[in-house]
Amino acid sequence: MQTGSFQWMKSLNKSTILNMVRVHGPISRAEIAKLTKLTPPTVTNIVNELLQDGLIVESNLGESTGGRKPIMLRINASRFYVIGVYARLGRLDAAVAHLDGKMVHQCAQELPLQMDQTAFIKALQAIAKEALAMAEADGQPVLGIGVGVRGLVNPRLGELVFAPHFNLKHVPIKTMLEETCQLPVEVENDVRAMALAESWFGQGKELDNFITVYAGAGIGSGIILKNELYQGVSYGAGEIGHTTIDIGGPLCWCGNKGCLEAHASTPALVKRARNMMEGGRKSVLHEMVQGKLSQLTEEHLFAALKQGDELAREIFIYAGECLGIGLANLINIFNPLRIIVNGSLTRAGANLMEPLSHTVKKHALSSSANNLSITVSDLGNRAALIGAYTQVLRKIFAPGA
């Protein structure tokens, strides 16, 4: 075997054992050999390297099966840090986390709604350096930085290809951050990052096939197939918000008519409520905005719903029905085990989820829908940030994924 091939195989085995300890630890060397089908000497040699690297530690003794009690191994979670950065319209969030995904530090920065590429990069660099300073104050080495950003992303190049909400194109996030921070950087679309977060730390943890759907200011999905994040040939997979649910529907910013996002995103719902009120519908929303309908926001809709306002309730029922059609299409194409819904629209609770589920049952093939569960994410608004640094964890523990 050539030296390069041997080193590659050794690296692959090292990651396999490291991930085995992460998933199943505390675990003995003998159990690792049994599960991985690697020889005991190979396991021993690689475990010794991982111990020397500080990535794993020996913990308590395990149960004996007749001989000496085995020494158990676990991830040395607090030995290293990873950093995640989430970029969305108007705000940057960053987190420092242990190798087990537990957040240790957080920081945030408000962004202007309009900014050019230079200002956007400077803001990213500033918050990444702030997070790095937090890690350095603890004396802990950082293994990498992951960025989740709203828009079309090329993760291979680490480039934000197009972000309509930021009005930015071809932003070299990976290159610029690596120059600034001198660390490896991973970049991914925010909703696909959410799917990674669910796969490692959320309701997708035990599932091979599931879909995360984000429904808020925009609508998108992250697809996990056979335990791998599906990105698409040109990294555009998951754009459920731009699937057509009504060919004669309202114009979407993408230029198409009747997109799901043009019907059920929060800006679309605010516009729908405003049109209904201008048409004479009574609602507590009139009082909330003091008759100034141009000032209506999604927060007003949620507040009115809480007060039992009928118009607000109808708005969220409509959103649930539209999303249900979109989800039924996903189910009929991908046949997932679970769909995990996230985003601000989930604040509407049963007013959204009940019509959504009813519409899915009506439009999805029963053969695909019968074994499906639709849930609301437990990770909530932390999902994209967790997913950002999960990219780094995936490179450490499962580099081939």
UniProtKB/TrEMBL annotation:
Protein name as it appears in the record: Transcriptional regulator, MarR family
Source organism superkingdom: Bacteria
Keyword match Glycoprotein: no
The organism of origin for this protein: Laceyella tengchongensis
Pfam families named among the record's database cross-references: HTH_24, ROK
Role this protein plays: Transcriptional repressor of xylose-utilizing enzymes.
GO biological process annotation, one example: D-xylose metabolic process
Molecular function terms from GO: DNA binding
Entry keyword annotation includes S-adenosyl-L-methionine: no
Keyword tags: Carbohydrate metabolism, Xylose metabolism
Ranges for domain HTH crp-type: 17-75
InterPro entries for the chain: ATPase_NBD (IPR043129), HTH_CRP (IPR012318), ROK (IPR000600), WH-like_DNA-bd_sf (IPR036388), WH_DNA-bd_sf (IPR036390)
The family this protein is said to belong to: Belongs to the ROK (NagC/XylR) family.
